[in-house]
Protein: UDP-glucose 4-epimerase
Organism: Sulfobacillus harzensis
Amino acid sequence: MHRGISVVTGGLGYIGQSIAREISARGGRPVIIDRRAIRPQVQGIPVIQGDIRDPEVWRQFQGQDVRAIFHCAGLIQVGESVMEPARYFDDNIVAGLGMLNHLRDFLGSVPIIFSSSAAVYGTPEKAPIGEEAPLRPESPYGVTKKQFEEILAAYHAAYGLPYVALRYFNAAGTDGVVRENHDPETHLLPRVARFLATGEPPVIYGDDYPTRDGTAVRDYIHIVDLVSAHLAALEYLAEGGEPTVINLGSGRGMSVGEMVQAFRAVVEDMPEPRVVGRRAGDPPVLVASIAKAQRLLAWRPQHSDPERLVREAWQGALSR
Ligand SMILES: NC(=O)c1ccc[n+]([C@@H]2O[C@H](COP(=O)([O-])OP(=O)(O)OC[C@H]3O[C@@H](n4cnc5c(N)ncnc54)[C@H](O)[C@@H]3O)[C@@H](O)[C@H]2O)c1
């Protein structure tokens, strides 16, 4: 692997840390930037504690061989973004824009691989959904991802900034060390696993969607597949690929009900799930078309089978 530094913003989080570990495993030089207070190293990877909007964080890289920025830092909860849009616009747009300007000042044109989201689509008209579909985000969170994609496109047009925005669907699973551990946890698999680990029935939000079993259908992608696509996206840019947006999912839709029932394979005497009302802003079906990722990145998901994702979520809950 190229010996230049790969900066991972938000690299103490679930996805960023998994990316940093894989870069390290492939012989690269990851450096994490995260504002959480923690040791100066994690898994042998240097950590700079700071906010991405702070110029001093980026000044330290001046004159160094920085190969790429994996931009994972940000606030991630759709529901919270509805209640507190100011924080979401500030962190996901203002701080990100500050970062881009400091990068221009101190480093010039460094390729950016951005953690975007399927939330940019809102409620899609079809499934699977392709990148050319209209963008109609239904939450401030989704708006921030759409706007940051637009900022990247404008910086590319005006300043030649290379970038790939990766629209993740539902990331899940573990690389063997890093596990999903959000607080609060709003993602289905770790949340269901936590309920079951305490003997409580898992909660399903809505069983009156127009889907095969009435529960919402989602696309779950294993973190190992997600991470390998990031490194492939960087290769793509290095080989002269045009900046673009790419969906990252498994390409397969699984209903919430099916995923919850899949826990029966690992949990003895599993209690029946409790169905409550729909969560505001949850579209009925969100499944990725991954044709573009396959074509441009020569990538395909290899670890995203639901049984494995459920097993790993259960192991994660037991090891908490
Ligand atoms: N997890 C998913 O399924 C999913 C789906 C779609 C998109 N995404 C996007 O992927 C990215 C990573 O998600 P995650 O699940 O790893 O989240 P996470 O909450 O585990 O990690 C995010 C990290 O970013 C850090 N951070 C936030 N703002 C910062 C700032 N201004 N400066 C420095 N550090 C900052 C936080 O301290 C945290 O460690 C996010 O941008 C998220 O919106 C995630």
User: Anything to note?
Assistant: The pocket of nicotinamide-adenine-dinucleotide is lined by residues 9-10, 12-16, 33-36, 51-52, 72-74, 76, 91, 95, 115, 117, 168, 170-171, 182, 187 (CB under 6 Å). Residues 5-171+221-248 form a domain with the Rossmann fold fold (CATH 3.40.50.720).
